[in-house]
Amino acid sequence: MSSCEEGKINIMGIILDRLDYDGALKRIEDFLKSHGLKTIVTPNAEIIMASRTDEELRKAVNGADMRFPDGIGVVLASRIIGEPLCGRTAGYDLMEMILDMAARRNMSVFLLGGKPKVADEASTNIKSKFPGIKIAGTQHGYFDESEEEWIVDKINKSGTDILLVAMGAPKQEFFMLKNRPRLQCSVAMGVGGSLDVLAGRVQRAPVFMQKAGLEWLYRLVTQPSRIKRMSVLPLFLAMVILYKFGRFGEKAL
């Protein structure tokens, strides 16, 4: 049973589902029983900030069937606006729970994204970690728009139940929105750089840092090139405070 009081919150125009992991998994199970493709996105501080000036991204995120909040920045923002999320939430952890569910329910998963060979390496490790899971197919994310129809056809022919799209924001959100009418799987989830982690090419922060909300610091230390992206976090929190007090003509809620 989920102990979280479910609902929705609005952070700078992005509507987020207020769910804990149990509530999210229950909703995904319902998605798998329903007709048509359901999409899942995991907005973090960087995506929310980008959506302020990118109307198409905002539409793509808000148009998803579930918007599971990702990262300490969004957790802190929810506290600032007085609608705290249901504890620490991470898109990667939700993805692993989906993989575990797929293995237990004999469902198939298609891996889309990453550099060439990354999805194949991730597939090998997933099958080792989640015995019995079916990997319906893999495809790297380095393709151009002219190849999209072929990619969608490949996914559909695989007969997959679940599609994990690891192309980074906003490309993965746009891909799911654009191809939603043609994709024949039940659930598609944007998972960012998760295939690199599943492939063993990138390491997650130690668990104690994850629990302390310091995963961003680990990424910064191990990947200094991310400093420009990480600089968004303090600006994001400052903007949330300003929105809360109506400095931009509207409140966060």
How would you portray this structure in words?
The chain is α/β, with parallel strands linked by helices. It is globular and about 50 Å long. It is built from 13 helices and 8 strands. It has helices at residues 21-33, 45-51, 55-62, 72-80, 91-104, 118-129, 148-158, 171-179, 194-198, 207-211, 215-222, 227-230, 232-244; strands at residues 7-11, 14-18, 38-41, 66-67, 108-113, 134-139, 162-166, 187-190. The chain has one domain (7-204, 221-244): Rossmann fold. The two termini are 28 Å apart. 47% of the residues lie in helices and 15% in strands. Helix 4 (72-80) packs parallel to helix 13 (232-244). The chain has a 6-stranded parallel sheet, with helices on both faces. It has a two-stranded antiparallel ribbon with strand order 1-2. Residues 249-253 have low confidence and may be disordered.
Topology:
Layout: E1 7-11, E2 14-18, H1 21-33, E3 38-41, H2 45-51, H3 55-62, E4 66-67, H4 72-80, H5 91-104, E5 108-113, H6 118-129, E6 134-139, H7 148-158, E7 162-166, H8 171-179, E8 187-190, H9 194-198, H10 207-211, H11 215-222, H12 227-230, H13 232-244
Parallel strand pairs: 3-4, 3-8, 5-6, 5-7, 7-8
Antiparallel strand pairs: 1-2
Helix pairs in contact: 2-3, 2-13, 3-8, 4-13
